[in-house]
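Help needed: design a sequence for this.
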């Protein structure tokens, strides 16, 4: 398993993917494929906390870094997924300095944060609390999703918050906040993305992006543009596209 905190600190490339199907077999297959990290999506999926814990366990046991994209910047939700064993969180709609501070504070124990102490899976069910306490404030990661024009405007201040390890652009919601959801090549969207990239470069912070199509060429393009924390598609699209391709080939050779 890679040291994700160290990789982010050094602005090194990592490639992960997204899990939206709440079955451990999906997590096991994807972790075995060689991703650096996998994010369990609890914002836009039907995955609940018991399923998330099983997915986290499976990812971790497969020597892949388990992250959770939480549904909101809520300290109780963040605390619970961290207690379930997540190595970090991807937090949606970080638009202000206070949003960034709240996200970090919910992950870290005092004095770095305000997270309450529980004795769950992350802490070895109470048997390894001291070890976990030493680990969490040093090695857990917090990724801020920048997916609204307000977050773009406040990005310099957000990146100054101690404990924000990287940002990830949410292109669909960002374009929506500009009044044209799903349109990524408008002048306004191009300006917003350039501002994000310029500020991350200035602040020496990791720039992230979720490439939705299962297209390695699109990931390569983002790497060339300076993105280093990259999510490559998601479970349902990998499955759906693979099935479509296989069936098309079958119909072609069978004359159907």
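Sure. Designed sequence:
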């Amino acid at each position: 398993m890679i040291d994700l905190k160290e990789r982010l600190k050094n602005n090194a490339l990592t490639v992960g993917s997204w899990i939206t199907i709440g079955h451990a077999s999906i997590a096991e297959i994807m972790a075995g494929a060689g991703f650096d990290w996998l994010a369990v999506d609890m914002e836009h999926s039907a995955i609940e906390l018991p399923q998330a814990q099983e997915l986290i366990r499976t990812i971790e046991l497969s020597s892949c870094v388990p992250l959770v994209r939480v549904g909101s910047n809520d300290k109780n939700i963040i605390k619970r997924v961290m207690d379930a064993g997540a190595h970090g969180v991807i937090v949606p709609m970080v638009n202000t300095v206070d949003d960034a501070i709240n996200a970090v504070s919910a992950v870290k124990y005092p004095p770095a944060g305000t997270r309450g102490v529980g004795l769950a899976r992350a802490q070895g069910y109470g048997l390894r609390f001291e070890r976990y306490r030493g680990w969490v404030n040093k090695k857990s990661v917090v990724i801020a999703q920048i997916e609204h024009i307000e977050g773009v405007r406040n990005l310099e201040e957000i990146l100054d918050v101690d404990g924000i390890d990287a940002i990830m652009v949410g292109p669909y919601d960002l374009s929506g906040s500009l009044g044209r959801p799903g349109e990524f090549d408008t002048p306004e969207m191009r300006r917003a993305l350039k501002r994000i990239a310029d500020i991350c470069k200035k602040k020496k912070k990791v720039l992230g992006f979720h490439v939705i199509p299962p297209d390695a060429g699109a990931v390569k393009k983002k790497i060339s543009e300076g993105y280093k924390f990259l999510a490559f598609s998601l479970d349902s699209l990998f499955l759906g596209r693979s099935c479509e391709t296989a069936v098309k080939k079958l119909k072609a050779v069978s004359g159907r």
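The longest helix spans residues 235-254.
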